Amino acid sequence: MKAIGIVAGPRKGQVTDRLTDSALKGLSNRGADTEKIYLIDLIIKPCRGCLACQRTGRCAIDDDFNTVADKIREADVMVFSSPTYFSNVTSCAKRFFDRGYSMFKDGYFGPVYRFEKPRKAILITSCGAPFPFSYLFGITTGSVRAMKAFFNYMRVKTRILIATGAKDFDIKAHDRLLRRAHDLGKTI
């Protein structure tokens, strides 16, 4: 089994990155070969809306996106994480989703995923606002909606982990979340 982790947050070693590590460790404990990619380290230009991908099945822009897309198509499970910035995913995540349209073809009722894999995904987001304020004010709603929309079009089974009150990583404060992420990796 192959598993790929994609971190869309710019702060390495912080909450979403560490939770991604924990989920990948859970997958590794099940025997999966794992790999983690930081979108912040890649050159992924904005989508031009040229629709060349609809004819060729690949994005026409020559940068790092197609390499990541190839790895996604080979993975059985994907872990995707993005912190919540202004009630939505990061700009890295949004750019990735926009360019990800190249992995779909136009269907009558919306995009249709072109490939068989991955079949499962763990989606992780975090925000600094503690519960219940994060819930009452819908702070992570936009992030979860954006991730679910992309992965639902891929027709993958998703599990979601939301870390609230998680501005900076603290091993003691986040132990329960790390265990939950690990368990998701072990059981998905």
Order of helices and strands: EHEHHEHEEEHHEH
Question: DSSP helix count?
Answer: 7
**In the CATH hierarchy, what is the class?**
Alpha Beta
CATH-assigned fold name: Rossmann fold
- The share of residues in extended strands comes to 15-25%
Low-pLDDT parts are none
How far the N terminus sits from the C terminus, by CA atoms, comes to 12 Å
Q: How many E strands?
A: 7
Shape: globular
How many domains make up the coordinates? 1
- Assembly of the depicted chains: single chain
Structural notes for this entry:
With 188 residues, the chain is an alpha/beta fold. It has one domain: Flavodoxin domain (Rossmann fold, 3-Layer(aba) Sandwich). The chain has seven helices and seven strands, in the order E-H-E-H-H-E-H-E-E-E-H-H-E-H. The chain has helices at 15-29, 52-56, 65-74, 91-100, 133-136, 141-153, 175-187, and strands at 2-7, 33-38, 77-83, 104-107, 110-113, 120-126, 157-163. It is globular, with a radius of gyration of 16 Å. The two termini are 12 Å apart.
Layout: helices, strands, pairs:
Layout: E1 2-7, H1 15-29, E2 33-38, H2 52-56, H3 65-74, E3 77-83, H4 91-100, E4 104-107, E5 110-113, E6 120-126, H5 133-136, H6 141-153, E7 157-163, H7 175-187
Parallel strand pairs: 1-2, 1-3, 3-6, 6-7
Antiparallel strand pairs: 4-5
Helix pairs in contact: 1-7
